[in-house]
């Protein structure tokens, strides 16, 4: 079930953007086979039961440094359409499953590579994490208080700049491969994807509507009609009344005297008046007054509260999988609806079925176990 039903994916287990990208593909119906490390001591990530990014996938554990483990992987690659890996440049090649190795087995394969710095460039071979990648693309400098930047979790780099871009690239390349019969490598660098996410900032700057200082612009908390305000109970509400008509409605509803147009950041005293007014009621009281209107105000909820918001409940935005509350698959499809996500499987749990589908006999599978190549 799902729009990607029938698409077979081999995901070499990693951390961060790779597993999330694989989850997105699985959520849309792809048969995602995760190749785990063969020994528990070398495993990566959370226990399987709590690894949400493992939902809907099948698992096999192979020692890719063992010749027979590598041979088994290449058998899987021969029957896949997509491969996803996130090693530093050159690692997959040294282990024997780089693009040349895999494409020689399967010329129509789409080989997706998601890394922080990309496959070339002066930083390509060095270590890094999300916070480093968004540092050199202008993202981190734009987020936070005026005094210092603030890391936006690892959402902008790893998952938006990495996972989403590698999935887009792999699906585009899959369409092309089905037409041409030839696969290719998708080089998804988090730095490239994060830079692309800053397109709106570059556009506004070109028009003279953005400056490098934080909290000095329309979308970074510099304007009174696009910011977060504390309420009487120490909680917060978000205000996003960008359009003049919406800001006028907000002022009317909360009883604030006219503060003029706010298409550009308004004087500090305007924001101070708003801040003082929002402190006069609790978050719940403000939501009762403003919810459902075009005043563009919403409560700031934490991850434990979000599933209980009426809108999220009505849309079933959160689901329960094996006792774990988690976001439901997104986006939604009107016809090719995916099955409900299944709980993550234990590492290596599906080895026999996966290898049998790849054409291996029971004797061959037994030999893999005997020699230690199969975990």
Strand order of the largest sheet: 3-2-1-4-5-6
CATH topology of the largest domain: Rossmann fold
Structural class: alpha/beta
CATH architecture of the largest domain: 3-Layer(aba) Sandwich
Total of helices = 14
Uncertain runs:
261-266
- The count of β-strands is 11
The description of the largest β-sheet is: 6 strands, parallel
Q: What Rg, in angstroms, do the CA atoms define?
A: 25 Å
Averaging pLDDT over every residue, what do you get? 94
Q: What proportion of the residues form beta strands (DSSP E)?
A: 5-15%
Helix and strand string, N-terminal first? Answer: EHEEHEHHEHHEHHEEHHHEHEEHH
What is the terminal-to-terminal distance?
30 Å
CATH class of the largest domain: Alpha Beta
Overall shape: it is: elongated
Commentary on this structure:
This protein has helices at 17-27, 67-78, 91-95, 99-105, 130-133, 155-180, 190-197, 199-206, 244-254, 268-278, 283-290, 310-315, 351-357, 362-371; strands at residues 8-12, 31-37, 58-62, 82-85, 110-115, 184-189, 226-230, 236-240, 297-299, 318-321, 324-327. It has 375 residues and is an alpha/beta fold. It folds into two domains: 8-197 and 321-371, Rossmann fold (3-Layer(aba) Sandwich), CATH 3.40.50.10540; 226-308, formyl-coa transferase, domain 3, CATH 3.30.1540. The protein has a six-stranded parallel sheet with strand order 3-2-1-4-5-6, with helices on both faces. β7 (226-230) and β8 (236-240) form a beta hairpin. The protein starts with 7 loop residues before the first strand and ends with a helix. 35% of the residues are buried. Mean pLDDT is 94; it is low at 261-266.
């Amino acid at each position: 079930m799902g729009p990607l039903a029938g698409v077979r994916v081999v995901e070499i287990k990693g951390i961060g953007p790779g597993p999330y990208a694989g989850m997105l593909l699985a959520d849309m119906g792809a048969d995602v086979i995760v190749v785990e490390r063969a020994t528990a001591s070398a495993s990566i990530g959370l226990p399987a039961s709590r690894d949400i990014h493992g939902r809907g996938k099948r698992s096999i554990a192979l020692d890719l440094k063992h010749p027979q483990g590598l041979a088994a992987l290449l058998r899987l690659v021969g029957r896949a359409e997509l491969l996803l890996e996130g090693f530093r440049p050159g690692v997959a090649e040294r282990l024997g499953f780089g693009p040349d190795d895999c494409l020689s087995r399967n010329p129509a394969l789409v080989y997706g590579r998601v890394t922080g710095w990309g496959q070339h460039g002066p930083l390509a071979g060095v270590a890094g994490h999300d916070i480093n990648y968004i540092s050199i693309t202008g993202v981190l400098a734009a987020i936070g208080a005026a005094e210092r930047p603030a890391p936006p979790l690892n959402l902008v780099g790893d998952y938006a700049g990495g996972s989403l871009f590698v999935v887009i690239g792999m699906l585009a390349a899959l369409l092309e491969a089905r037409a041409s019969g030839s696969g290719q490598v998708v080089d998804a660098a988090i730095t490239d994807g994060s830079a692309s996410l800053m397109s709106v900032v570059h556009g506004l700057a070109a028009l003279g509507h953005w400056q490098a200082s934080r909290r000095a612009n329309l979308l970074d908390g510099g304007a009174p009609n696009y910011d977060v305000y504390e309420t009487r109970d120490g909680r917060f509400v978000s205000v996003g009344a960008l359009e003049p008509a919406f800001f006028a409605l907000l002022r009317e509803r909360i009883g604030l005297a006219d503060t003029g147009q706010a298409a550009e950041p308004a004087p500090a005293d305007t924001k101070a008046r708003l801040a003082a007014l929002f402190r006069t009621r609790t978050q719940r009281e403000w939501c009762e007054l403003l919810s459902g209107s075009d005043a563009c105000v919403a409560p700031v909820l934490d991850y434990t509260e979000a599933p209980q918001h009426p809108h999220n409940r009505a849309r079933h935005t959160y689901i329960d999988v094996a006792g774990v509350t988690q976001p439901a698959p997104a986006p939604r499809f009107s016809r090719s609806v995916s099955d409900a996500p299944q709980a993550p499987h234990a590492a290596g749990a599906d080895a026999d079925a996966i290898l049998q589908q790849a054409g291996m006999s029971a004797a061959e599978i037994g030999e893999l176990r005997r020699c230690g190549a199969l975990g």
